């Protein structure tokens, strides 16, 4: 650990200790019942108001990895990295009505996870199990990516090593996170999110005003970025990117943004934050107010161009010997800010890793407990046994994420997250569309899930990345000329060969088509559709309805 930035490190530690105290204190914050109940531990008692939900969702959706990866993508690829901005703008009007219905039926029926809803809607333990497994698999690398963001900050401060000893600060940070999450449940990240988001807002506002004035203004910054991105890459011989989209990546940009928007609230941690709110009005207010975070994200993305203008060079990844783009923003702050303010910025990113990691681990634990443990291993589990199982599962999930970072190349986590986005998108028919219609037969949804998953993985596997020499899982851009349907290339020779598209979107279309065809066949053959355990009034229930079942009722 050479050249440690002691001022930055001390400020980072002080703020980290402060949020640790908040994490343990949170167990008594807004406590209305025993934390030995999944509704209290895993959903905060379902009574978070508008402000708490706003900070919780903001801390959940705009993660530490978002704050390092989006500018890093803009730094390396230019305008394509801006896809995160339209996707986090259009997501809220898309999600508003489904989120309200999911909250209502979950509150009425005591559902804790999206797989609970699928189980009740289609009377299909198998379909619910597939949804639960998909959610857990898609969430695990997301947690690991928070560690990638935290580690980028630690490396910038001079804490740079390998093996168990080199990763000791990371281990300590997540041991503390595991302990206060175990004790306080969802209340811990909800309370810490206040600190995290306030720090993020301060840092980004200062950065977006101060740095351009220091580097010659936005005109100079954009000119520098345009010139640098246009230079041929030494590995591919082609320009790395552009500050404007071109004809080949416009479709990819649009489908990636739309696909990501459709997927965002399918992730179990996003729905956990929604279900923790106390009413439909809280959700409505948040869907209106959350784009404020998107505005900040847009400002943050511009820091990728600022880093180009400032001449920032990423640190080398110890495992691969290649530049680590995730260090771009921390290095920019380290080189351009005073040490004390860089320390605050690093603390904001570090705390920004803890909040979503806690929520994600809780969401994965809820899925394991309700849809695997209780469904298949202990059907008569008491609320106390459920809560204990969820607490233990959350520890295992965090441990798994840490081991991935320590034992495996962090790039593997990024690859897995790329896969995870495609996978979670395949749950849309069973989770989101099913909120409005039960026309799809459970057999059709299972068949669609299998096709969407399989084809999505096949397409991702076939995408190379010449820039880093990867032959498979090299990105999220599929050339339409390479799009194959049982060996048939429908777009080959059509002039669209070089046009790129997001494979997750293609897989989703195939998923829905197959689900519809199999549903028609199943209904024609009069296969048993199962008994719908939900009622029409469940989808419109609000917090004032006197007929709501007790929380936790099945």
TrEMBL record:
Keyword Chaperone assigned: no
Compartments (UniProt record): Membrane
Membrane topology recorded in Swiss-Prot or TrEMBL: Multi-pass membrane protein
Lineage: superkingdom: Bacteria
CDD domains associated with the record: SLC5sbd
Record field: transmembrane: 6-27, 48-74, 80-100, 127-144, 164-182, 189-211, 253-276, 288-308, 340-369, 390-408, 414-436, 443-463, 501-522
Keyword Membrane recorded: yes
Keywords, comma-separated and alphabetical: Membrane, Transmembrane, Transmembrane helix, Transport
PANTHER family per record: MONOCARBOXYLIC ACID PERMEASE, SODIUM/PROLINE SYMPORTER-RELATED
Similarity remark: Belongs to the sodium:solute symporter (SSF) (TC 2.A.21) family.
Name of protein: Sodium:solute symporter
